[in-house]
Every structure is written in structure tokens, then in C-alpha cells.
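Milestone 3.1: sequence recovery, worked example.
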């Protein structure tokens, strides 16, 4: 993620925007290839948190929100453990 005061991805310089999308693609491929999600959604809402960020979300038909969006529809605690999150992070940083 670029360190910037820019709030909207479209306002990034082209090279930074391309790098951001490259990072999102890397995460998306990880979700598909390593965690075996058949679908990946990418969102840049920025309504509640006014900072540039992307959501890269693995989806499958047995997920708790399928086929609805995850926002406002997640009614179960489906969080990954801190150990799993650290493993994902270390694998993505390779």
C-alpha cells in the first residue's frame, strides 16, 4: 500500500496505482492458489474510513455471506486466528 494522503485510488500517480493493483493481484492469487477460494472480490469503498485501502476477499459458495456482499451480511464470527494471519502474512511477503 502506498503511504500517501490520497484517498481515492484514481488520484494516485499511475506508477503507484499500478503497484497497488499489483499487490492486490498478488493477494488475490494467494487466496485462489493457496487458500483455494474459487472467486476473489476486490473493493475500494472508502466511505467509513477516509483513507486509501483495498479489500481483497476470497469467496466461495459455502462462505457465510454467499452470494450477498460481505459488508453488512456477516453474522457469524468467521475471523482467522492470529496464528493463521501471521502465516498468511509471512507467505505473502516472500
Amino acid at each position: 500500500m502506498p503511504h500517501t494522503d490520497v484517498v481515492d485510488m484514481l488520484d494516485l500517480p499511475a506508477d503507484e496505482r499500478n503497484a497497488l493493483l499489483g499487490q492486490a493481484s498478488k493477494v488475490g492469487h494467494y487466496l485462489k492458489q493457496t487458500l483455494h477460494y474459487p472467486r476473489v472480490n476486490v473493493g475500494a469503498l472508502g466511505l467509513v474510513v477516509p483513507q486509501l485501502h483495498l479489500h481483497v476477499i476470497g469467496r466461495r459458495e459455502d462462505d457465510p455471506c454467499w452470494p450477498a456482499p460481505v459488508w453488512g451480511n456477516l453474522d457469524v464470527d468467521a475471523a482467522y486466528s492470529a496464528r493463521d494471519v501471521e502465516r498468511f502474512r509471512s507467505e505473502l511477503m516472500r
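The first helix runs from residue 14 to 33. Strands lie at 39-43, 55-59.
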